[in-house]
Amino acid sequence: MNRRGLLLGGISVSVLWISGCGKSDPGHGPGRVHWDRDSCARCRMIVSDRRFAAQIRGGEKRQVFQFDDIGCAIFWLKENNPPWATAPDTEIWVADTQSGAWLDARTAHFVSGKTTPMLYGYGAVREPVSGSVDFATLKAAILAKGR
Predict the structure, then answer these.
(1) What span, in angstroms and rounded, lies between the C-alpha atoms of 1 and 106?
(2) Structure confidence at residue 147 as a pLDDT band (50, 70, 90)
(3) What is the mean predicted confidence (pLDDT) over 74-101?
(4) Is 113 left (phi over 0), alpha (psi -120 to 50) or beta?
(5) Strand, coil or helix: what is 5?
(6) Helix axes 70-80 and 135-145, enclosed angle (nearest 10)
């Protein structure tokens, strides 16, 4: 291969590599949070407390919606009722109150009595603890509370 072919091949590979690096959202999993800048999709409060944040990812474009409290996420789904809300690929993420790691809300456990940003009072944990509830029980309790 001549020098020109090597040069053009190298440029093509570099352009493909660089353009691939710019795509940081794979369309699944929790999205990136800009702490103290992103606002809750429901109440518009700034998302800043890493212990109680939540996210919903869904729809055709796999858009991420940020929330400051799991209660806001649950009510946002009820109030907006997007057509993809119950789709199997819709994801709901919650921050673990102990580590800050993202947990699948449907498999997380929730502990009441927490002081959360919107006062719904539930924090997520990875493993069940005394008095914790599952997602279905949490959802029913929050909806019954209202707001």
Answers:
(1) 56
(2) confident
(3) 96
(4) left
(5) helix
(6) 70
Which strand (E) or helix (H) includes residue 92?
strand 91-95
Percent of the chain with pLDDT strictly greater than 90: 80
Residue 1 has pLDDT above 70, yes or no: no
Measured in degrees and rounded to the nearest 5, phi and psi for residue 34 equal -95, 85
**Which residues face 55 on adjacent strands?**
66, 93
Residue type, 71: G
pTM here is 0.81
Question: Which position has the token pair 């008095």?
Answer: 131
Task: Find where tokens 């993420």 sit.
Answer: 93
Q: How many whole angstroms separate alpha carbon 59 and alpha carbon 84?
A: 5
The C-alpha atoms of residue 100 and residue 94 are separated, in whole angstroms, by 9
Model pLDDT for residues 24-67, shown as the tens digit of each residue? 667 899 999 999 999 999 999 999 999 999 999 999 999 999 99
d(CA 56, CA 122): 17
3-class DSSP state of 29: coil
The tokens 């119950």 sit on which residue?
A: 86
Residue type, 95: A
